[in-house]
Amino acid sequence: MYFRYYCPTEVIFGRGSIKEVGQVVRNFGSRALLVVGRRFAKESGYLDKITKLLQEAGVEVHVFSGVEPNPSTETAQRCSEFARERGSEVIVAFGGGSVIDVGKAAAVVAVQGGRVEEYLYPKVVTGNALPIVAIPTTCGTGSEVTKNSVLTIVKEKRKVVVVGPAIIPKVAIVDPDVIRYLPPKLITWTAMDALSHALEAYVSKRSTPISDVLALEAIKLIIENVERAAKGDETAQEKLHLAATLAGMAINVAGTVLVHAMGYYLTTHHDVHHGLANALTLPYVLELDLQHIPRDKVEKLLHLLNVETVQDLIIKLCKLLDRVEIPNSVKDVGVQEEELETYVKHTLGYRRNLENNPIEVTEDIVRNLISKALSGRKGTYRYH
Question: Which fold has domain 10-178?
Fold first, then answer.
């Protein structure tokens, strides 16, 4: 057995922990760029609250706002230039994965110069970057503890990634209080993102004993708490927020697999929320991949979910997706049968995800899985 585990992010977890942001940021510099999305930070009052906490700690604050869902490389480029022009010494990213990913990409480009496109995978980003303090406002992406920044090249309708140790946040402040403001739909969708992270990390070829422990705990927390969290149970929301961070730690090591590759098409071509896209494709990929990982790992997962067979596990997952109102089929989010070959070709382009898959991903495999996603869970598995 041989593996490496690397997660240098300091995680500060707990209700009210956002109050520590001033001193945390001051440790890295006296001029901060606060990166936020379009509405949530301002409407929730957190924009003013964080700004005040930073200023009270002696930190000069500039705000870069308006980060869109599934952010573009252009947005990350503008953010990097904004940071450089204002002499920012540290980036504070307050938002979901989109906001944090923009902050991470901007952090390296602001220091090393050039265009975001010059830093895309397969390049691995090393060297200097602005330190990042990430404050996640959803219970899904885990971006606060990963080395990945996922962006979109809009004109190509293609997801790309900046990846490397230079952009891992120095500190993650994970305060469950912030997700009280999320509508139930977003709690569910972002939790499905975290669930897909955990399950994908568990089946990945790059999984390790440590990532497996993190993934299994995240799976347990999500399945036990997502429904109550969506109904406003604050204890359940707290556990989901923790699960998202644990799942992020798992994919930081093990990466994601075919689920993400299939989900990206739904996001770039049909504007489907990333977590929802993953949920729509998860059962079919998981059923396949569980046939190609060590049996002892399968048994651990079956035991965790209190089922006897992989088929039982998939049906249990499908019923959970039904209860949290995930649409039955990708047709329900606009995908047409005529798109099949375009969808297949697009999915095959995400080699980084496909290479992590425990079974070699062929064109026929992708076509078969997408056909199942078009048929939907009920059409594929015939459960009641």
Answer: Rossmann fold (3.40.50)
- Is the overall model pTM greater than 0.70, yes or no? yes
pLDDT tens profile 48-82? 999 999 999 999 999 999 999 999 999 999 999 99
Q: Are strands 60-67 and 171-174 parallel, antiparallel or unpaired?
A: unpaired
Transcribe 225-262 into DSSP letters: HHHHHHTT-HHHHHHHHHHHHHHHHHHHHH---HHHHH
d(CA 206, CA 252) in angstroms, rounded, equals: 10
Architecture of domain 182-381: Up-down Bundle (1.20)
Tell me the sheet residues that pair with 305.
Answer: none
How far is CA 274 from each of CA 21, 81, 88, 263, rounded to the nearest angstrom?
Answer: 28, 27, 30, 7
Q: Which residue has the tokens 């939790």?
A: 191
Q: In the chain, which residues fall in CATH 3.40.50.1970?
A: 10-178
Interval 270-287: pLDDT, tens: 999 999 999 999 999 999
- The tokens for 186 are 């977003």
**How far apart, in whole angstroms, are the C-alpha atoms of residue 243 and residue 228?**
14
